[in-house]
Amino acid sequence: MNRITESYAVHAEMKPDQIAIIDEQESITYQDWYERVQRSAQWLQGTAHQQKRIAFLLSNGASFLQIFAGAACAGWTAVPLDPRWSHEECVEKLLLSEADLAIIEDRLMKRFEQSSVDIPFLSLSEWKERMSLLTDSPDNSCETEKDPVFYMGFTSGSTGSPKAFIRRQQSWIESFRMTTASFGITHQDHALILGTLLSSHFLYGAISTLYFGGTVTLLEKFVPVKAKKALETGDITVMYTVPTMTETLLQIEAFREDNPLLVMSSGADWSISSKEQLVTNYPHVTFFDFYGTSELSFVSYLSSNDFMQKPSSVGRPFSSIQVEVRRPDQSVCQPNETGRIYVKSPMTFSGYLHEQKPPEEWLTVYDMGWLDEDGYLYMSGRENGMIVYGGLNIFPEEIERVLNEQPEVKRSIVVGVPDPYWGEIPVAILEQEPQIKAVRQAVKEKLAAYKVPKKWLVIDQMIETSGGKIARASMKKWAEEQLSCKQ
């Protein structure tokens, strides 16, 4: 198969009445799902277009997945936009993407009444009405181009300005194969998607489950009691999550002690103590913690079994992936020697929009780390997030790991703030009001003196990305503003 939607026809024929998607509004069978995707593709193929790109600004729900899958089926590129962005940010991404049209949730349409973007805007209800008129969708109307671009996302470049990355269908199909081979996820699984589909981790979880022929349950947004209720049914076999969500569910005892569950987690900020709590208190739960990026896709994974032997590792590279750690002169580092991480993989992205040259065979996103003697990967931090303090290199993630192990600390982040004497100083930001004196002492005992944060700030709640991770750039800006006010 060379399309991420190609299996839907088989599922519709073999098990038409099986539930494909459950959201907070409806349940959709595979027969219905197949027909909806076909209609979406048929409508796009009948639309005048230049770039074959459709943007959409929607909350979690079946419509989001239908537009995404319909675009992939039609050979179009889906461009999801985040409802949490400001109008200016949405316009910036629309202009960057050069989308041909946009579908907007009804409640957000007024944002675009005076828009400077010269493309057709359809409300979600208008789009649904058009779909309802397309009743005689021909079978197998999907685009036959071998490997079209199907997904455009956005990431911040080194300057902080957004860059649009593109991905071809074959890269996700390779990832689907890895998901089955490495984790044993199949058509029999029922996946709970806890977070926003704007995050590629959660979107991948939903689309891969539909590819296999399993069932997807979507939350409109992460509400801990709703997630707990879904888990209490005993139907869920796989849960896609990020560390902050997992830790919240642990606090409210959302996991069943008797129910086997596979926890698929992405995010480098999942603390060792939280992982220990999950495997100790819930022996029927197995977790896989990923290291990956938008550009690289999956790189390595740590299983709950591996965690017992290698608690600080981000795991072993997937079987089809090669990882090298290199020095600045590009020579390969020895085991346990820190350098820049390079990845060779069939799952990587297809490059950035408007950049002519294709990605290199070996890719890096300037993450720093090392491999041990057994081939397990460890992260130091982002090279471009590195704090240079008086000529000494400090990786914020190293300090954060120590901070997050302290029982008084709910969540933490360390950022570099400009300093006229040192160049940059490490500043710790802690959520809520812990005993900073005790926390500082614990850091002093575990890290070199120059790595101990020079300033300490407290915030009621961390600023988060739409995927539920701490928004590092926004927190850095907040810290700089706080410190400038105190001077």
From TrEMBL:
Keyword Ligase (UniProt): yes
Pfam families: AMP-binding, AMP-binding_C
InterPro entries, per the entry: AMP-bd_C, AMP-bd_C_sf, AMP-binding_CS, AMP-dep_synth/lig_dom, ANL_N_sf
Entry's EC annotation: 6.2.1.-
GO BP, one annotated term: fatty acid metabolic process
Keyword set includes Transcription: no
UniProt domain AMP-dependent synthetase/ligase: residue ranges: 11-353
Superkingdom: Bacteria
Keyword annotations from UniProtKB, A to Z: Ligase
NCBIfam families noted in UniProt: PRK07638.1
Annotated family: Belongs to the ATP-dependent AMP-binding enzyme family.
Protein name: Putative acyl--CoA ligase YhfT
High-level lineage: Bacteria, Bacillati, Bacillota, Bacilli, Bacillales
